[in-house]
TrEMBL record:
Coiled coil: none annotated. PROSITE patterns: ALDEHYDE_DEHYDR_GLU. Homotetramer. The active site is at E266. Transmembrane segments: none annotated. Residues 34-491 form the Aldehyde dehydrogenase domain. This is aldehyde dehydrogenase (NAD(+)). Belongs to the aldehyde dehydrogenase family. One of its GO terms (molecular function) is aldehyde dehydrogenase (NAD+) activity. Its EC number is 1.2.1.3. Keywords: NAD, Oxidoreductase.
Length: 511
């Protein structure tokens, strides 16, 4: 166990970081229904009290973003890339501070806080290159003397709603692509992580000043549910990109669809690893432990289910349980900690409920299962938990945002793939095998039904270069790399007649 840190230490450090990042918001507004209280899950103590945006604030911010779009959308894309380059430079300079703030507010261990900022830097680099590669196709036409092509134009205002668990990187995947695409951005972060959002916004505004760009191209709303709702319903918001629970996505999607807006949804996951008899169990155990216990089980890509061949399941569970015994649980600010706290009391209640439900369903707790309570009444640290299950019951099909790993067994690969896909979510997945046929089968159409499918690595920790997102209840959106930028632009198909004739398509005659 690592040494607990005091709330005063955390508080003083937070204020110093915010000052260095250039945050000038009032951090001590009087506490009332109109304030959002920032807290640290490390101790459960409060860090700041911030003014909550009201409906007229949201209206004004969206109006500014819409007005800024008129100019920003006409700036050449490679010049837009210059803004993203400045942002990337500032993130490099302030990586340690922003990473520490992520640790303080989201509870991530030091290297994961830094890793999240690294994702931001990486997507900035990607965005700079992308700003010269917003390619459209030239298409063969059926008419002589004609040329057909497509262009990608900026879309408009992009609303970005983010979750507590990736409080800074998810904004950057969206904002960087949107800005390069010529869109403007309005960000509504989780109420649980307002300070990291203020830190990012302060750096963004500095980047805009350095690049000589109107800072209204990317704005922030510190608000509650009502602010998110206002973005969802605002017809000026052309694309609403929302990361969070499936429940949230189910509420958001029809409302945006009703006004013919676009959505990009990145919702829950229930990610599994199939472990076959040929798997390298050393590597597999390491892959499983990072994916399942890392970030205290609070990634949407966290490994939640292992589907192990019955011939190796016992040995695998023993290895995982032994590895779990060695994981140091404690303050994420201590560099030797591997497992930090859950975000808050409801997250802990969810953990307890899931462990109880799994046991009631016939599960056996093979590691963990309990709270670690020496960090104070309001800090919710739990032991990473492994539960062997007799079947894939309802609780296993449900995403509980906590470090609980359910283990199921199988005898044939068909059975394993059927179990794998028999959950509502479809984000990330993996197979551990050294058998080429099994690996390829898992990656094929007859294998994993997820947006991400990996071989011999766990489901979490995706790089920014690939498209990120998943199917079914995960919402279908793709963010970050590959051609995810297309979601942030509108396609215009253009046909040009450079002849003196007017031949009609499909051979139609009209004379
Ligand atoms: C999330 O948990 O919302 O693949 C995003 C990963 C990270 C992103 C997770 N790059 O685990």
């Amino acid at each position: 166990m690592s040494v607990p840190v005091t709330h005063d230490d955390v508080s003083v450090r937070t204020r110093a970081i915010l000052a260095r990042l250039g945050v000038d918001a009032d951090l001590d507004v009087p506490r009332s229904h109109a304030s959002i209280v920032a807290r640290s899950p490390i101790t459960g103590g409060n860090l700041a009290s911030l003014r909550t945006a009201d409906a007229s604030d949201v209206d004004a911010v969206v109006a500014d973003a819409k007005a800024a779009f008129a100019e920003w959308s006409t700036v050449p894309a490679p010049v837009r890339g210059g803004l993203v380059r400045e942002l990337g430079e500032l993130l490099r300079e302030h990586k340690d501070d922003l990473g520490a703030l992520v640790s303080i507010e989201a509870g991530k261990i030091v290297s994961e806080g830094l890793g999240e900022v690294q994702e931001m830097i990486d997507i900035c680099d990607f965005g700079v290159g992308l700003s010269r590669q917003l390619y459209g196709n030239t298409i063969a036409t059926e008419r002589p003397g004609h040329r057909m092509m497509e262009q990608w134009h900026p879309l408009g205002v992009v609303g970005v709603i983010t979750a507590f668990n990736f409080p800074v990187a998810v904004w950057s995947w969206n904002a960087v692509l949107a800005l390069v695409a010529g869109d403007t951005v309005v960000w509504k972060p989780s109420e649980k992580t307002p300070l990291t959002a203020l830190g990012v916004q302060a750096l963004f505004e500095r980047a805009a000043a350095r690049a000589g760009v109107n800072p209204a191209v990317a704005q922030l709303i510190i608000g509650d549910r009502a602010s998110g709702q206002a973005l969802v319903d605002d017809p000026r918001v052309a694309l609403l990109s929302a990361t969070g629970s499936t429940r949230m996505g189910r509420a958001v999607a029809p409302r945006v669809a009703e006004r013919f807006g676009r959505v990009l949804l990145e919702l829950g996951g229930n990610n599994a690893a199939i472990v076959t008899p040929s798997a390298d169990l050393d590597l597999t155990t390491r892959g499983i432990v990072f994916s399942a216990a890392g970030t205290a089980g609070q990634r949407c890509t966290t490994l939640r289910r292992v589907i192990a061949h019955s011939s190796i399941a016992d040995e695998l569970v023993d290895r995982i349980a032994r590895a779990y015994d060695t994981l140091s649980i404690g303050s994420p600010l201590n560099s030797d900690t591997l497992v930090g706290p859950l975000i808050d009391a409801p997250a802990f209640a969810g953990f307890q409920k899931a462990v109880d439900a799994a046991v009631a369903d016939g599960g056996t707790v093979r590691a963990g299962g309990a709270r670690v309570d020496e960090f104070g009444e309001y800090a919710y640290y739990v032991q990473p938990t492994v539960i062997t299950m007799p079947a894939q019951t309802d609780i296993v099909k449900h995403e509980t945002f906590a470090p609980i790993l359910y283990v199921l067994t199988y005898d044939t690969l068909d059975e394993a793939i059927a179990l794998h896909n028999d959950v509502p979510q479809g984000l990330s997945s993996s197979i551990f095998t050294t058998d080429l046929r099994e690996a390829e089968r898992f990656l094929s159409v007859a294998g994993s039904d997820c947006g991400i499918a990996n071989v011999n690595i766990g489901p979490s920790g995706a790089e920014i270069g690939g498209a990120f997102g998943g199917e079914k209840d995960t919402g279908g959106g793709r963010e970050s790399g590959s051609d995810a930028w297309k979601s942030y632009m509108r396609r215009s198909t253009n046909t040009v007649n450079y002849s003196n004739e007017l031949p009609l398509a499909q051979g139609v005659k009209f004379t």
